[in-house]
Each structure stands twice: as C-alpha cells, then as structure tokens.
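Thought: the user wants the 3D structure for the chain below. I'll pass the sequence to the structure tool as-is, report back what it returns, then summarize two notable features.
Action: structure_tool
Action Input:
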Amino acid sequence: MKENEKKTLAKKLPNELSPCGVFCGACPSFEKTCLGCASESQSQQRISKWNCKIRKCCYEEKGLDFCGDCAEFPCDTVNKKLIHSHPEDVRFKYRHDVPENLRKLKELGREAYLEYQKQRWSCPSCSGRVVFYTYACVECGKHVIA
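Observation:
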C-alpha cells in the first residue's frame, strides 16, 4: 500500500485525541505551543510530535486511528514510551492509563470518549482545565486526581 493510501485509512482525529490514547487536551502545551498529536498543522511551535515513533507507526504508516486498533498492541514502543515509563512517578500516571483509555474508547465510541475525557480533565471546583504532570487546574490551582 502506498503512503497516500495509508493516510486515507485513518479518520481525522479531533486535536484533543492522540493515536496512542493520551488525551492531548490535558497537556500543558495544548493550544499554547501545540495543536495536538492528531493535528497536521506545521504552524505550531512544539514539534516533538513529528518525531514520535508511536504517531508515525499508528497514524502514518499503518493508517490506524488508534494504537488499540493494532493487532500488535501493546507493542514494545508503546510499552517503553508510555505504559512502563516512569513507573514510580505520579506525574506520568496519564501514560500508564493508556490501555484503559483505549479500552474505554472502544466501549464508548469516539465522540462519547472525547466528552468523557473532557469531563475527566475538568476541575470539579471551577470547570477549568486540569493538566497532567501537576494534576492541577490551570484556572484555580486545585489539585485533582484525574
């Protein structure tokens, strides 16, 4: 299959969702220096996603929307970069949630899953956006367990 054919297999993801199952909407860089892992825009400041092995494999090479759709999931790359990375560091809990996120995505479907994640990463006090690493609301500073 040619490269341009592969890309047509994957549906355009909302910018808040990533092929690996991490919710980009909870990233501190989202909408500041990054438009999300699914964005194809070259006009963003954060460029690390272009070198992401998971994004390239899933979204570009295999033409899949999500890693969970791959017969090889969880592969060595996903395990190393996400699921088994920083095992004792609570700042990276969101990475360890990837298998559960992808299971939930299959259960709910894309639209309901996106709403679920938006709610999950919303501050219960002020409805502001909670971000990973700090698990705090960017509006009121309240710490939230997402």
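Final Answer: Structure generated. The first strand starts at residue 130 and ends at 131. The chain has one domain: 3-137.
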